[in-house]
Amino acid sequence: MSHVEIIAGLDIGSANIRMAVGELSGEGDQVNIIGLSEEPSAGVSKGTVRSIEEVVDAIRNTVANAERMTGLTLDHAYVAISGSHVVSQKSKGVIAVARPDGEIRADDVERVLEAAQAVSVPPNYEILHVLPRTFTIDNQAGIRDPIGMNGVRLEVEAQIIEGQSAHIKNVTKAVNLAGIGIDDLVLASLAASESSLTERQKDLGVALLNVGAATTSLLVFEEGDILHVSVLPVGSAHITNDIAIGLRTNIDVAELIKLQYGHAAPDRVGKNDEIDMRLVAEEEEGSFGKRHLAEIIEARVEEIFHMVDKNLREVGRSGKLPAGVIITGRGAKLPGLVEVAKREFRLPAGIGVPIGVESAIDKINDPGLTTAIGLVRWGEANQMLAPRPFGSWQLKGLAGFGKQVQSLIRIFKP
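Structure (tokenized):
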């Protein structure tokens, strides 16, 4: 009987907490999603933990539902981390190759990545990921996998992703108090890219836009490497707030209106379409026009996309990504979003759903699940490695590099 490994991914969002459970057979590299659980989040605001106790209870409920669905006991998971506190910066590292014969091995790659960490980290921040972009050997640039090559000088250009220490500790504490051990802390947008982007899209140049409830994360790939990372403090909950103000109703009713009748492109909505508020909530009075609702939504969506495009301009990629923009997350379900994205970004656009996995669960194509399932994919890429204690993340996240570099660096990480 072949060995089956269970991998769990836990996505702690401001609106929902989601867990995906994957089954990986030793006979192949295809992961099968056997369990999905989604519960309302509590104690999290704008991606930041506000109440440890409430977060712990919400995580426990999510895990309990996943355990009932799979019939398994789940006591460890890959955990996503996000929030507007996440920042990134570029860095370079240089070392001399240690061996007399000049052959570059995994420990040389580890040393050059450690050298790249010698950057000025903001106070009360710590490094989450060091993402290598490209290596250079003796002035020969553009090398993606230096292991096995020869040279005397090894350089790396890397993207350093940092998170606020207090937030990292609070997330870690909440997950551990819920009875879950942490296999790895992974940037949420990085996890989402694992399940929603193809290697071809990453090579051509693509922007992943993960629209959550309180934040919108941007991840830009080019030639298979991460070019830019940012987290914006605005998300789909801000659209709900605008609807509540514009239609003079409460937040809960505004959310129902958005889900049932919302559209981001007013031109696609009839001018004279009126909706009786009692169809949404019996206690409400009056009516609203679907065109007016769409105009409210469009204004906020345009603002979010303008903020994203400003980031793209900063890295010289506004309107210059052949694979376009892929939108995932809870906010990606809004009708008309792709149409507005094509117009505002002047690029191809589409909705990102989980790919590269198998499942008998109908809900698997939900764009809101890309992060949780991406965490399972992240674990899949590292399932051959021996378990290691949680607590040091600096060399994690070698997205866009060969499996050999990724695996060996993780094996030799102290």
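The CA atoms of residues 326 and 350 lie 5 Å apart. Confidence is low (pLDDT under 50) at residues 384-414.
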